[in-house]
Amino acid sequence: MSSKSKIGPVLAGLAALVIGGAVAQAAQMKAAGPQPGDCKGALSVAVGANPAVAQAMWVQMVAAQYGKNWAHWVGARDKAIVPLGAQSYQARATPCFYYPVQ
Predict the structure, then answer these.
(1) Does an H or E element contain 44, and which?
(2) Which end of the chain is least crowded, N or C, by CB within 10 Å?
(3) pLDDT at residue 10 above 50?
């Protein structure tokens, strides 16, 4: 077997290793910006006269603070609406990035 015939398979194997490593590294890298399911580190809290108003206030507050794709109640984590007294409710949840299908 000549030296040229040995080099071809070696170079092909080396190329496969390099390409395979690059693909694995690219798969591990996270895309720039938030992805669906990424959540903020803290709860956001809003108060309203009834549960619907408290939830709407939470959505408005989160949208103003983080942007509209963070302000979806359905995508939030640890969400709850609890009564604070006779005539007020607290909506609290951890905002999570959510991009609804349209």
Answers:
(1) strand 44-48
(2) C
(3) yes
> Is 0.70 topped by the overall pTM?
no
State the amino acid at position 94 in one-letter form: T
Residue 23's contacts (CB-CB under 8 Å, 6 or more residues apart) are none
CA distances from 92 to 1, 42, 69, 80, 98 (A): 73, 10, 17, 6, 17
User: Among all chains, which residue has been given the structure tokens 């080099």?
Assistant: 7
DSSP state letters, 76-96: -EEEEEEE-SSS-EEEEEE-B
- Strand pairing partners for 96? 39
Cα–Cα distance for residue pair 83/80, rounded to 1 Å: 10
Residues in the chain: 102
- Kind and range of the H or E element at 18? helix 3-28
Token representation of residue 91: 């909506």
Res 11 pLDDT > 80: no
